[in-house]
Write a structure and sequence with these properties.
Blueprint (H helix, E strand, L loop, with lengths): L2 H9 L5 H30 L4 E10 L4 E10 L6 E8 L5 E9 L6 E8 L6 E8 L10
Antiparallel strand pairs: 1-2, 2-5, 3-4, 3-6
Keywords: Membrane, Transmembrane, Transmembrane helix
InterPro entries: DUF4307
Protein name: DUF4307 domain-containing protein
């Protein structure tokens, strides 16, 4: 037996160069497609909120109430919305909340509301906002 024959018997014959590259190239294409799909889904779920509100100011009143000013930004300003604004006492416990109707507008809107608290309020924040306006808050 020659040396060449014994190596072929031991290790097999040489592969053609085209077949060895198909696997990694196919894997790379599938990996790119899956990565793009994951990025798209993450952007849709985690991307910018369609409706957001921010507390701009608050004023504590002597009668256990607080006046809160909020700015609301929407991706669809012509749709009504509702935001829940809450006040907290010195321990951080929520002591009052109010649903604030956000009427349709041309752009961002600034609103004021007064919230009654169970104890002396020290701060306020916006709990959340939604386009799902309850019927009792809807206005004609």
């Amino acid at each position: 037996m020659t040396e060449h024959q014994s190596l072929a018997d031991r290790y097999g014959t040489a592969r053609s160069p085209g077949k060895t590259r198909r696997g990694p190239i196919l894997f790379a294409i599938v990996a790119v497609v899956v990565s793009v799909a994951i990025a798209y889904v993450a952007f849709r779920l985690i991307g910018s909120a369609p409706l957001s509100a921010e507390r701009v100011a608050f004023t504590v009143r002597p009668d256990k109430t607080m006046e809160v000013t909020i700015d609301v930004e929407r991706n669809e300003p012509q749709r009504p919305a509702v935001c829940v604004v809450r006040v907290r006492d010195i321990s951080g416990a929520e002591t009052g909340r109010r649903e604030v109707y956000i009427p349709p507008s041309d752009g961002s809107i600034r609103l004021r509301t007064v919230i009654t608290s169970g104890s002396r309020p020290v701060t306020a924040d916006v709990f959340g906002c939604t386009y799902s306006v309850p019927k009792y808050l809807s206005r004609p």
